[in-house]
Amino acid sequence: MPESVYRPGLVLLLMVACGGGSNSSPRKDASNPTPGADAATSACANLACLQQVEDLMFGCAGGGTCVEQQDSTALPITTNECFDNGVRILATEMISSAVTSSSTTLAYKVKKGDALCFTRTFVSSQSYTDGGLVSGIDITLEDASGTTLVTASEDSNNVVTVTCPGGQPTVFVDSCGYDSSAANGAYVTLGATPPTCTQGSCSF
Description:
9% of the residues lie in helices and 43% in strands. It is mainly beta. It has one domain. The protein has a ten-stranded mixed sheet with strand order 10-9-8-7-6-5-4-3-2-12, covered by helices on one side. It is globular, with a radius of gyration of 17 Å.
């Protein structure tokens, strides 16, 4: 079944309704998520931890209709999303700014039923220097126990560099066979496009 991925952009704005600003990921069959990664190359071998991350994200994909409840009265801004298949997502946003720099932190906790699947955090920073604007995103995914499974960074040219635990930083390439959601996706939903959530009552 086709799936889609919510992926925050480089310039992170206040969160809007579910599905806003989403980008489609390469399509894959959820019943057969294992890619044919070419581990014979050193680059692909350095990205091997993405298999575990991908399995975890696709195993906790939201499906069916979605109800969203948002609290934007004060920081941190929180948004709860509840899907028909039992997947729930808590998104938390914090913003800090100074004269020449700003930072936005988006954290996504994903549950399936009552069990936490993973937490993915995006820290977007911008600073103004003599050479102009410098921006980037640092991305971390932790499993339910708090163990870091992968870190990544995305520069202003949308180049994503992945670091597996104990491994070397390596630029993500599609040719290794891993879905890009494992590198820089926030969470996965079933369907060709992200669902449009209706406002309602939803608790994480």
